[in-house]
Amino acid sequence: MQAGLYLTATRGLGAPEARICYERAEPWCHSLNRPVLLYVVLMGQWHYSLMHDKLTSTIQIAQRVYSLAREQNNPAGMVGACSALAMTHHFLGDFEAGRRHAIHGIQIWRSGSVQSHAEDLDVRAATCLCYEAFSAWNFGEIVGSQRNMVEAISLAKELNDMHGLASTLYYAASFAYHERNPAEVERLASDVIELSTRHHFAHWLALGSIIRGWARSASGDTIEGISWIEDGIRDYRAIGAIISLPSLLGMKAEALHLADRTSEALDEINEAEALAERFENRYWSAELYRFRGVFLAAMGAEGTQIKTSFSEAIRIAKEQKSVSLQKRAEATYAEYRRQKASASGGRGYRLPLW
């Protein structure tokens, strides 16, 4: 179990060696009647599944964790189970369910009855705070989201949890990306990279490099930015992770478009959408369709294709009840219609990415 924990932290959440460790540990936990250690083993299996499997399979493991923690009346296990359920529902695009589980985990943590497992990978309450923040952002509650991110970072620092701090710093950088704030993304990504380099956290180092590359590209340095993104995606794939690839490829597509390589950007969107469909990872699908509309408009594609892309972005955002993504898609589509109405025809349209 300890080997699995260390391998997960250093080689990445999708390390196959960690999966082998946790699979071997599970029958021992049952035979020795050690439910607390079984919780840790199941969380390790959940991490691996989150990186590799369809999310409908991953959520079954999260539900096993929840049932175990509830059966044992284990508050720390309940917080961990809530974090797992919150993350899995978030990636499925069910922001309401994700938020319910995140809030439940936070409430248990704040009750004062929780003592974290020393064998747990992260401070699970911090993870709940981060994913409650992402859910709140989708529902248009920006100020509350920012407070939760600050609290999550403070909690990880207070408990001296370096792996948890790396993850929460990355989540904060991702939140700043949601808000389209390149300077804040750059600052937080630098912290993620420094911390992950010092402690050999391969997963967060790759993600920190990618999001820093987006910040550099958004700030005008597309050559260096694309290089950072490509190196990070290569490293992310090398550690066996898949779950975040749709959004990461979306970042690369943005950078390529900003570098006037829009046909290549569209190729990245095609791959991102295929992965999202294959692994049931729908949380960024509205943005991927919005990007497709932006890129098709820039290339002077058929109006029906452009309209279909924006309409799909709006439909998905409405279905997921994401106020923020719906507003963004509607605003971009409105700008396209405005430019089209005032244009003399026969050329592409330069629409804002945010």
Short synopsis of the structure:
It contains 17 helices and no strands. It is mostly helical and 354 residues long.
> Low-confidence spans: pLDDT under 50, at least 5 residues?
none
Backbone CA Rg: 20 Å
Backbone shape: globular
Give the distance, in angstroms, between the N- and C-terminal Cα atoms: 44 Å
Report the strand count. 0
Q: What does the largest sheet look like?
A: none
The average pLDDT is 94
**Structural class per helix/strand content?**
mainly alpha
What is the ordering of alpha helices and beta strands? Answer: HHHHHHHHHHHHHHHHH
What percent of residues are in strands? under 5%
How many DSSP H or I helices?
17
Helix content: over 70%
Walk me through what this model shows.
- It contains 17 helices and no strands.
- It has helices at 2-11, 16-31, 35-52, 55-71, 75-92, 95-110, 124-138, 142-158, 162-178, 182-199, 202-218, 222-238, 245-258, 262-279, 285-298, 303-319, 323-342.
- The model has no long low-confidence stretch (mean pLDDT 94).
List its salient traits.
354 residues
Layout of strands and helices, then pairs:
Blueprint: H1 2-11, H2 16-31, H3 35-52, H4 55-71, H5 75-92, H6 95-110, H7 124-138, H8 142-158, H9 162-178, H10 182-199, H11 202-218, H12 222-238, H13 245-258, H14 262-279, H15 285-298, H16 303-319, H17 323-342
Helix pairs in contact: 1-2, 2-3, 3-4, 3-5, 4-5, 5-6, 5-7, 6-7, 7-8, 7-9, 8-9, 9-10, 9-11, 10-11, 11-12, 11-13, 12-13, 13-14, 13-15, 14-15, 15-16, 15-17, 16-17
